[in-house]
Each structure stands twice: as C-alpha cells, then as structure tokens.
Amino acid sequence: MTTRLIIIRHCETTDNKKGKIQGYNEDSEFTEEGQKQLIKLINRFKEEHIDAVFCSDLGRAYKTAEAIAKSHGLITIKKKDLRECDIGDWSNLPVKEGIAKWIVYYEENKKKGLRREDIRPPNGENSFDHQKRVMNTVDEIISNFRDKNVVIVGHSGTNRVIMGSLENKDPDDFYTVGQSNACVNIIEYNGGKYKLIVINDVTHLKDETS
Predict the structure, then answer these.
(1) pLDDT tens across 183-208, in order?
(2) C-alpha span between 56 and 209 (Å, rounded)
(3) Mean pLDDT, the chain, as a whole number?
(4) 67 pLDDT exceeds 90?
C-alpha cells in the first residue's frame, strides 16, 4: 500500500503580491487572484479521495486548507510547527532584500568559522531549526496515516523543507525548488522509500479557455 502526501502552498495574499515577507508571524488576506486560486484548488481535488487535511495555523494556510477539507466533509487539523521559517528581525523586509541580507550574513559567519547549525538571523531560526520542527510534525502525520491520502497546506519554505528532507537533501539546498501560490506537490511513500511524483504543479490554475 502507498501513503500519498499532497503538499500545497497557500493561495496568493496581498503581501505575496507586494513582494513582502510574511514569514512566521505575519499574515494578510487573499487577493482577488488568490480567491480564484482557491476555487480552482477545490475543483482540482473534488474527484480525489482525501483522508485528512493538515495545515499551518497561520490564516493564509488555514483558509486554503479549510476550503479543501469542507469540500470533502473533513475537519482541518492545524499544526503550528508547519509555519514558515522565522527570520526574526528581518521579517518585515521585502522578500528580495531579506534573502540578500540572509545570504551575506550566512556566508560572513561561515567564514568566521561558525557551524552552519549555529548561524541564525537575529532573533530568528535557520534551516536546521525549521527542518526539525516541520519534520517532527510530518513524521507524526505519516506514522498516523499509513496508506492514506493526506493533504498538507503549508508555505513556500515549509513545503521545500518537507520535500528536501524526504529526498535527503542538504539543508542549504532546500529552498531552490519553486513553490508558486496554490501549487500542488505529490509525494508517495511505499516500502520505506519516498518518491516525488509532482513538483510545483500549477496546471489547475490555468484558464479553462486557454
């Protein structure tokens, strides 16, 4: 039998559109496009059997998950540890600026001889911290839902951590995979092995007329 993980990124928010980091604590409402994406996600899975729906407890992930769960008569299970990476004092920066600042800070501290595991944004966490809390929850989900179809609605970084961890990637390489708003990733677990079936699929978001 096969356990199937359907990993989804939340729909587009106003901060996504502005290019602003939302991160671990911040949230914003769906854009008009995000609302359309939500409907298309519901339609994408209406014919599929789903046994459980989990999500980050942040509003943008919960609202995405709740719509899918309701269409299948399920209760959404919120997990705080599925939140996005906490980049501390840099949380309110534009995405590009925050990433650039982190890269410079990270490389400078590596040159000073600090271990990667010990380099963190001021008052924030690193990839290793993010991986530990996210994968503790994912491992628990897999253990409790063997041979089931499970939806997990997370964030760009969180989804990358899940896929990178299951592929045994180095934490430095987690965040290179694309994760568009409302994208779908599918991972199958069978015989102790994980296989990525679909990555960053957005075909369900295309206009029906195109």
Answers:
(1) 999 999 987 889 999 999 999 998 75
(2) 33
(3) 92
(4) yes
Residue 96 neighbours by CB under 8 Å, 6+ apart: 19
Cα–Cα distance for residue pair 72/105, rounded to 1 Å? 45
Residues 6+ apart with CB under 8 A from 192: none
187, 8 contact by CB (below 8 A): no
C-alpha span between 207 and 120 (Å, rounded): 42
Q: What is the spatial distance between Cα 132 and Cα 137, in angstroms, rounded to a whole number?
A: 9
Which residue, among 70, 162, 171, 83, has the nearest Cα to 119 in the 3D structure? Answer: 171
Q: How many helices (H) and strands (E) does the chain have?
A: 6, 6
Q: Which amino acid is present at 174?
A: F
* Token couple for 22: 């939302």
- The C-alpha angle 31, 35, 37, rounded to 5 degrees, equals 110
Q: Are 155 and 83 in contact (CB under 8 A)?
A: yes
* pLDDT of 210 above 50: no
Residues 6+ apart with CB under 8 A from 92: 20, 21, 26
Length of the chain: 210
Residue with structure tokens 């939340």? 10
Q: State the Cα–Cα distance between residues 145 and 187, nearest whole angstrom.
A: 14
| pLDDT at site 154 | 96
